[in-house]
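Worked example 3 (structure in, sequence out).
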């Protein structure tokens, strides 16, 4: 089983790429954001630590963490955000490392794809076999974010400002899929990369 990290800036189209990979390969896909949400549920390894840090004020009536309340609590407080990341990111990475061991042992899949915007920053280069950069030019990313998520230019600017420079993605990723044009163009690049290892699903 080959473990491949999928990364790229916001609006680069990682979700659509993952959907295509799921359709065309024998794989398991792990999305780091979804793992984080799971670990923040009551009983999850991050839940008690986050509540202890931010207080029960962030809880909804059912006892779950209310993401809106949590965001309001840490908004503008970089120290709190750092402490939350120090709780969540290592727990997510540990979960994923355990999943890799489990899937290698089971031998059910040809690929395990891991998707996260912060794969490089959080040291996933050390645990994957290959890192893929989904590249999309900034103009196209901005257009997609305005159209699909309704983001303002101000919000887009703040998000892009916090992300890695393109040079860093190129430095750490051995495969680049250009998704600046059509999805079909990106899919053809994936087909060429994986070749005969693609499932015969037509």
């Amino acid at each position: 089983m080959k473990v491949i990290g999928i990364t790229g800036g916001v609006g680069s189209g990682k979700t659509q790429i993952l959907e295509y990979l799921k359709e065309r390969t024998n794989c398991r896909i792990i999305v780091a954001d979804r793992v984080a949400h799971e670990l923040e549920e009551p009983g999850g390894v991050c839940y008690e630590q986050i509540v202890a840090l931010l207080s029960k004020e962030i809880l909804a009536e059912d006892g779950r963490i209310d993401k809106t309340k949590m965001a309001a609590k840490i908004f503008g407080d970089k120290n709190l955000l750092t402490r939350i990341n120090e709780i969540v990111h290592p727990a997510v990475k540990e979960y994923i490392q355990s999943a890799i061991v489990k899937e290698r042992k089971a031998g059910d899949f040809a690929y395990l794809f891991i998707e996260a915007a912060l794969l490089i920053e959080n040291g996933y280069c050390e645990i994957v076999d290959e890192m893929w950069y989904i590249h999309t030019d900034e103009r196209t990313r901005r257009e997609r974010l305005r159209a699909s998520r309704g983001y303002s230019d101000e919000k887009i600017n703040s998000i892009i400002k916090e992300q890695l420079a393109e040079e860093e993605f190129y430095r750490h990723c051995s495969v680049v899929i250009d998704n600046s044009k059509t999805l079909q163009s990106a899919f053809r690049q994936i087909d060429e990369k994986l070749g005969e290892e693609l499932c015969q699903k037509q």
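Notes: The chain has a mean pLDDT of 92. The first strand starts at residue 2 and ends at 7.
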